[in-house]
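Escalated from tier 1: hypoxanthine holo job.
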Amino acid sequence: MTEFAIICGSAGLEFATGFAPVTCPHSRYGTPSEAPRVGDIEGVEVLVLARHGVPHHLAPHLVNYRANLDVLSQLGVRRILALNTVGGIHPPAAAGAIVVPHQIVDYTWGREHTFADAAELLHVEFSDPFDAGMRQRLLAAASLAGIELVDGGVYGCTQGPRFETAAEIDRMDRDGCTLVGMTAMPEAALAREKGLAYGSLALVVNPAAGRAENAIDLEVIAAVSREGMRRVEQLLRVFFQREVGAH
Ligand code: HPA
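Tier 2 regenerated the structure:
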């Protein structure tokens, strides 16, 4: 049983490249993005699952979020740390910033977004979509590691895979969103339905549409992601060192 899983996004996780795939349990919801891989980070056994598959081939609307959460839950996971790359709508969510979001607005559609089926009506409390304890432990680890984090952000989740129009970003801004990404939903809600603690580190890789002079540039995004993920990995090392100390 592995208590902790990291779901990584477009940016990937360098230190998980040596992790070995586990025998993947069967899921009635279909095939997960990959068989979760297991490894050790600073003495803590951790499962890693690449949301977009390896190599990256699943667009955000094609990810089987239900199968991913179902197999992690079957493997005994209780806590999930999601890594997300996002666009920044509002300062201080500038390119390169790492944000610990506290809220979500869901703009996705047509995704399989619940485990509730005809036989089961399932209403879950979701006022606070991110686990408070996980948020606090991430912030504490960052301050020990000397890594700057932005405490709080409203993650607006869009359908993708295209980026947004400038007017859509203006509307999201009026709705109170400070970040825009494509993957936190339905992932966060499915984690809640399974009773799993869910936290996110959102790496801002570009100013959202219409928020910079230049158009969104995929090469710039890739460079910002690479640099940002180095900081995320440093932070994760300190986070897991503290987890060992906590048990
Ligand atoms: N919009 C949506 N998702 C994203 C963006 C964006 O600008 N950048 C990274 N993921």
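DSSP finds five helices and eleven strands in the chain.
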